Amino acid sequence: MNKETLRKHLREIPDFPKPGILFYDVTTVFKDVECLQGLIDELYDLYKDKGITKVIGIESRGFILGGALAARLGAGFIMARKPGKLPAEVVQETYAKEYGTDTIQIHKDAITKDDVVLLHDDLLATGGTMAAAYRLVKRFGVENAYVNFVIELTKLNGRKAFEEGVEITTLLPL
Q1: CA distance 168 to 174
Q2: Which of 166, 122, 163 is nearest to 144 (CA)?
Q3: CB 3.0-4.6 Å disulfide test: which of 10, 95, 136, 162 passes with 166?
Q4: Model confidence pLDDT, tens digit, residues 93-129
Q5: Cα separation of 157 and 71, whole Å?
Q6: How far apart are CA 78 and CA 111, in angstroms?
Q7: Catalytic: 61?
Q8: Is 23 helix (H, G, I), strand (E, B) or coil?
Q9: Does 144 have pLDDT greater than 90?
């Protein structure tokens, strides 16, 4: 999928969820079958030779392409969620936000050290949630973990939230 097509289907919503924020709504990309298939195809091409065994989707928009990509790669799909959303025993990582902290969790039995993991979400802004999810995955002893976003807001420098050497890909830098 070319970047122009992706950009054309992306909806911008000013002042959401609060004044001064320009929200990039990917639901308009997902509802277009050609865009959706194009994204899945492009992500598959990026990761088909990496030996991915598990795809972790970050709550909640990361579930959409994460699940589709896992199926296409022949990998399992894991949900990374906010506290209180997963029914079995969890492991968690707490991280700092602008005002306070937040936590991300996955099931304790979701991955093993032998898995090759792809973490996926729709948007890289400041990077806090995904960096916490990445650290959580590394606590399992996973050696090979990749990070992917559909969109990256480059001015927010979200890549700085990650340790050096983390392989991060984005399809549309803005």
Answers
A1: 15
A2: 166
A3: 162
A4: 999 887 789 999 999 999 999 999 999 999 999 999 9
A5: 31
A6: 8
A7: yes
A8: strand
A9: yes
Q: Of residues 89, 98, 163, 164, which has the active-site annotation?
A: 98
Which of 61, 81, 93, 152 is catalytic? The answer is 61
Identify residue 58 by its one-letter amino acid code: I
Q: For residue 67, what are its two tokens?
A: 């699940």
- As a whole number of angstroms, the distance between CA 106 and CA 89 comes to 9
Cα three-residue angle 131-136-141, rounded to 5 degrees: 120
Residues in the chain: 174
Residue written as tokens 């989707």?
57
Neighbours of 29 (CB within 10 A): 26
Mean pLDDT in residue range 138-150: 97
8 Å CB contact between 54 and 116: yes
